[in-house]
């Protein structure tokens, strides 16, 4: 058996993708719509209070294309809190006008492929990566992925040294995108249908394509990467929610 990589985990993540039922939303009178918007903004305000206390992070994004209209990303120290927030949101009147499109449950994960022998509990940089404040960069890209387990292309049968070498090359490509693309890798083995969630942030949406394309030529992705659906979109700050929902 090859030695499993050691992982350390941080905050739990829920990616909640919804489609708007615009027809039903339009049937409301404008006063009712604005009450519902205020109620949703109050919910976002609570999320913000948690973020201000560094006890979680969240983001709201509009999604381009027909897969969804918006995505809520929530990070919390426990999965229980995520479930509570999800249930709370589902009970709001706003949620009645949304249709679930996709969701993803995972936990922020760092592996020891490239790690020095730092104590993760003591290292502020590692702590910040395990409990990340979502960057307020304009664009987001989210997709789930697996490492292949097929015939001779089985990631999980490779030796630790072999995997470490491949991950080094992966990290080198990623590093060239410093300042352009930020990544949050969340592990989801045992939690959801794929093994990882990949959440990327950029100032320029084109950098997602550049990075993901470049990685396709790198062995970790070329030989071992399998990918789910891609969701791309942009930040929807609280100040712009009313405009987004204006009909
Ligand atoms: C934005 C750039 C970027 C950078 C700098 C970067 C670096 C790194 C490092 C240093 C490490 C290993 C240590 C750790 O931190 O865990 C990883 C780990 C990982 N990555 Fe990565 N990755 C990036 C970006 C990046 C992308 C765009 C993807 C998607 C792949 C693609 O083809 O679409 C990805 C995937 C992953 C995964 C699934 C893992 C976990 C693999 C495992 O088997 O455990 N990643 N990654």
Automatic annotation (TrEMBL):
Matches recorded under Pfam families: Chlor_dismutase
GO molecular function terms listed in the Swiss-Prot or TrEMBL record: heme binding; metal ion binding; oxidoreductase activity, acting on the CH-CH group of donors, oxygen as acceptor; peroxidase activity
Superkingdom assignment: Bacteria
The keyword Heme appears for this protein: yes
InterPro entries: CHDC, ChdC/CLD, Dimeric_a/b-barrel
Enzyme Commission number(s) of this protein: 1.3.98.5
Catalytic reaction(s) noted: harderoheme III + H2O2 + H(+) = heme b + CO2 + 2 H2O; Fe-coproporphyrin III + 2 H2O2 + 2 H(+) = heme b + 2 CO2 + 4 H2O; Fe-coproporphyrin III + H2O2 + H(+) = harderoheme III + CO2 + 2 H2O
Pathways per UniProt: Porphyrin-containing compound metabolism; protoheme biosynthesis
Alphabetical UniProt keywords: Heme, Heme biosynthesis, Iron, Metal-binding, Oxidoreductase
Gene Ontology terms describing biological process: heme B biosynthetic process
Cofactor(s) the protein requires to work: Fe-coproporphyrin III
Active site: 143
Record SUPFAM superfamilies: Dimeric alpha+beta barrel
Enzyme class: oxidoreductase
Binding note for cofactor: Fe-coproporphyrin III acts as both substrate and redox cofactor.
Residues that hold Fe-coproporphyrin III according to the record: 129, 143-147, 170, 183, 221
Listed PANTHER family: COPROHEME DECARBOXYLASE (PTHR36843:SF1), HEME-DEPENDENT PEROXIDASE YWFI-RELATED (PTHR36843)
HAMAP family attached to this UniProt entry: Coproheme_decarbox_1
Function comment: Involved in coproporphyrin-dependent heme b biosynthesis. Catalyzes the decarboxylation of Fe-coproporphyrin III (coproheme) to heme b (protoheme IX), the last step of the pathway. The reaction occurs in a stepwise manner with a three-propionate intermediate.
UniProt similarity note: Belongs to the ChdC family. Type 1 subfamily.
Protein's recorded name: Coproheme decarboxylase
Species of provenance: Texcoconibacillus texcoconensis
């Amino acid at each position: 058996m090859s030695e499993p990589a050691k992982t350390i985990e941080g905050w739990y993540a829920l990616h909640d993708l919804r489609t708007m039922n615009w027809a039903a939303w339009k049937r409301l009178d404008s006063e009712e719509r604005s009450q519902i918007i205020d109620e949703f903004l109050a919910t976002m305000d609570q999320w913000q209070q948690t973020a201000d206390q560094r006890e979680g992070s969240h983001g709201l994004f509009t999604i381009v294309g027909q897969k969804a209209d918006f995505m809520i990303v929530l990070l919390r120290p426990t999965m229980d809190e995520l479930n509570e927030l999800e249930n709370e949101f589902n009970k709001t009147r706003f949620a009645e006008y949304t249709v679930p499109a996709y969701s993803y449950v995972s936990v922020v994960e760092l592996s020891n492929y490239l790690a020095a022998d730092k104590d993760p509990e003591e290292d502020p940089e590692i702590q910040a990566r395990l409990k990340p404040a979502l960057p307020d960069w304009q664009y987001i890209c989210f997709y789930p992925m697996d490492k292949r387990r097929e015939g001779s292309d089985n990631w999980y049968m490779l030796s630790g040294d072999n995997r470490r070498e491949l991950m080094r090359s992966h990290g080198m490509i990623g590093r060239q995108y410093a300042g352009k693309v930020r990544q949050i890798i969340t592990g989801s083995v045992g939690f959801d249908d794929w093994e990882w969630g990949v959440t990327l942030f950029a100032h320029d949406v084109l950098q997602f394509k550049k990075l993901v394309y470049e990685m396709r030529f790198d062995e970790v992705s070329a030989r071992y990467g399998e990918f789910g659906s891609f969701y791309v979109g942009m930040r929807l700050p609280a100040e712009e929610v009313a405009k987004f929902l204006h009909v």
